[in-house]
Design a protein that fits this description.
The protein contains 13 helices and nine strands. It has helices spanning about 10-15, 110, 130-140, 145-165, 170, 175-180, 185-195, 205-210, 215-225, 230-245, 250-255, 265-275, 280-285, and strands at about 20-25, 30-35, 40-45, 50-55, 65-70, 70-75, 80-85, 95-100, 115-120. The radius of gyration is 21 Å and the shape is globular.
Amino acid sequence: MTPPSGVDRLSALLERFRVHAHLFHAGPLCGVTHFDARPGRAFLHVLRRGEMAVTHRARSGAPRKLVLSEPTLLFYPRPLAHDFHNAPADGSDFVCATLDFDGGVQHPLVRALPALMALRLAEVEGIAQTLDLLFAETEQVRCGHRLLADRLFEVLLLQMLRWLLDHPEQSGVSAGLLAGLAHAKLARSLTALHERPGENWSLEAMAREAGMSRSAFAAAFKAALGSAPGDYLLRWRVSVAQTMLREGASVKTTSDALGYASPAAFSRAFTQIAGASPRAWRAVLKGD
C-alpha cells in the first residue's frame, strides 16, 4: 500500500515519548561478547564491515543464531540478552549504543516492534551520510564527540523507523501500531489521535480523518492494530497521561488536557488500563 503523503507519522509519537541514545562502544570486539537484558535497556548496534554471529536464548522471541555477512543494523527495542561471536577484531567499523525510551517497555513503539530488527544497511535509504558522520565521530576524540554520537544514533533510529513505515512488506511487522501507521488511510486517523488526544474522538470523527466509512474504518483498524479504535484511543490517552504525571503534571491538568469531563472520569479510565488510580500509580513510581 502507498504510504500517505503529507502526513508526519512519527513526530507526535517521539515528541510525547522520547528516546535517548548513549554510545558505549566503538571499535573491535574479540571472541564472545555478552549483553545482559536489563530493565528498560534497549540496544542499537551497527556492523559496518566484517562478519559475525549473534545468538539468543531459546524462546526469547529472536532467532537462536543469526549469521551476519554484510553491513547490518541490529535493533533490540526491549531488554533481550544476546551474544556476539567473533565480531570484527580490527578497525573501528562497529559501534553500539543503549537506548532509553520514555516509559520503557510501555513506549508505544517498543510495544509495536518485534524482539529484534536486523536490517541490511544497503536496504535503508538515506542513512549513508548519518553513518559517515557517526563513524567519523567515533574514530577520534574531539570536543563533544560523545554527545554528537549520541544524537546521531537517535537520528539513525528515526531513519530506520521511517524506512519501516515506508516498507511494511519488508519490515516483517504485520500487525500493531507500525502496521497501522503504514496504512495509507489509517495513518491519517492515527496521526490525528496522537497529535490531538484531548479532542472528542467519536468513531465517526476518527473515520472521517481516514476518509472512510465508520464500518470500513472499524474493520480495517481492528485488522491492522488488533484492537478497536476506542480501545486504542483509551490506551493512548493513558500512555500520554503517564508521561504527563511522570513529569509532574497534576491529575486535574492531565484530565483537562486529555479531554475528560472531570478528574473522576479520567481516574476511572486510567485505573481501567493501569490497574491503579493516577495518584496511586504516581506514588508507586516515586517509591512512596
